[in-house]
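Risk register update: the risk of archive-format incompatibility is retired. Evidence:
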Amino acid sequence: MIKGSIVALVTPMTADGQVDWKSLQELVEWHVEKGTDSIVAVGTTGESATLTVAEHGEVIAKIVNQVNGRIPVIAGTGANATAEAIELSKAAKEAGADACLSVTPYYNKPTQEGLFQHYSMIAKSVAIPQILYNVPGRTAVDMKTETVVRLSKVANIIGIKEATGDVPRAIDLMAQVGKDFLVYSGDDATAVELMIAGGHGNISVTANVVPDQMAKLCALAMSGQAEQARALNESLMPLHQALFLESNPIPVKWAVAEMGKIGHGIRLPLTNLADQFHQPLRDALKNAGAL
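Archived output:
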């Protein structure tokens, strides 16, 4: 069972936008050493929207090979076409990923029945655990609680990344699904409250820059040490907020580059962090002990 601090890993790139394989290898090692519990390869933070299909599969395979079974690897395999999501899931399974993270289809705005059929078809087509991913702020599609409850009964669908930041909603969902259905936060600022309430972990942007602190935060929250978890989260709140000064992953890629772990490469239509946000984010990194 995949639990705890799950980093939504950035995909390092060179200045001309090519994947930086050496930096990717080093990032994976750093996360394993710092106590990250699991890695999401090529999620939103990993620029899934702008990697080619071939690159998508190759990044997943490289991360799986580098991890070499030490921690689970979750592959981002979402798409707005069901057939494409199935193909990406097949590639993830072939690469040896432990599970897939599949975002709701974006832009085409399926109905709730469409979402149910989409995920059911993926789960039926590929024998790899599927984690649903609901982030309506980016996709313009909100998967309702009743739809998630229906999907929780489908074989191969094991959990959800709930990235609305609505903790009461997530708590209501947990009350309606089986105890083995995994509910993860996808919102760093509110993740601690979801985990204290019984959530299974946090799929995190912040873990890219302070993996040891996020691993500790998740462990505290999930073991019921609420006071200590909240205190640590409060100290990290300026960083959680600064990492969204512009669209994710713009700030976090700049931050990891500022730490000297990757270069400043990012792919259009995303651009490098605007100058006026450099100092606020640098200050947040210093306050969190990342610089």
